[in-house]
Automatic annotation (TrEMBL):
It comes from Paraburkholderia tagetis. Residues 20-111 form the DUF427 domain. Signal peptide: none annotated. This is DUF427 domain-containing protein. The lineage of its organism: Bacteria, Pseudomonadati, Pseudomonadota, Betaproteobacteria, Burkholderiales. It comes from the Bacteria.
Length: 121
C-alpha cells in the first residue's frame, strides 16, 4: 500500500516475510513472522508487530498521544521491566487514517528505547 498525501511525502507499508523480534533486558517482548514494515519519507523504516505477537502484559498505556498528519493519532505505551519502566517505548495507531488502515491493531517500538530490534531470515 502506498500513501501519497503530497508530492514530497510517501508511505509504503510492506508485508515483512522475516522474523522480527524486540528484546529488552534479555527478555523477548515481541516475536513475529507477520510484521509490517512502514517506509516513510524522511524517517527510518519502522517494524509494526501484530498485538498477538507482543507480550502485552509488559506494556502499560501511557497518557501520551501525538498527532501525525499522514497516519492519525499515535497512542503510546510504557514497557514494564524488572529494572523499572521504559517511558513511551511503543506506540500504536488505534484509529489510523484510511490510507494506512493496515497498521491498525499493530504496535511499533522505539528503537532507541529498547535494547534490540532484530530482523532475521
Amino acid at each position: 500500500m502506498t500513501v501519497e498525501p503530497d508530492a514530497g511525502h510517501r508511505i509504503d507499508i510492506i508485508v515483512n516475510r522475516h522474523r522480527v523480534r524486540v528484546i529488552h533486558g534479555g527478555i523477548t517482548i515481541a516475536d513475529t513472522l507477520a510484521a509490517l514494515t512502514l517506509v516513510e519519507t524522511g524517517n527510518p523504516d519502522v517494524f509494526y508487530f501484530p498485538r498477538a505477537d507482543v507480550n502485552m502484559a509488559r506494556l502499560e498505556r501511557s497518557t501520551r498521544t501525538a498527532p501525525c498528519p499522514y497516519k492519525g493519532e499515535a497512542s503510546y505505551y510504557h514497557l514494564r521491566t524488572e529494572d523499572g519502566r521504559v517511558e513511551d517505548a511503543a506506540w500504536s495507531y488505534e484509529a489510523p487514517l484510511e490510507a494506512v488502515r493496515s497498521i491498525k491493531a499493530y504496535l511499533a517500538f522505539h528503537a532507541g528505547r529498547v535494547d534490540r530490534i532484530d530482523q532475521t531470515s
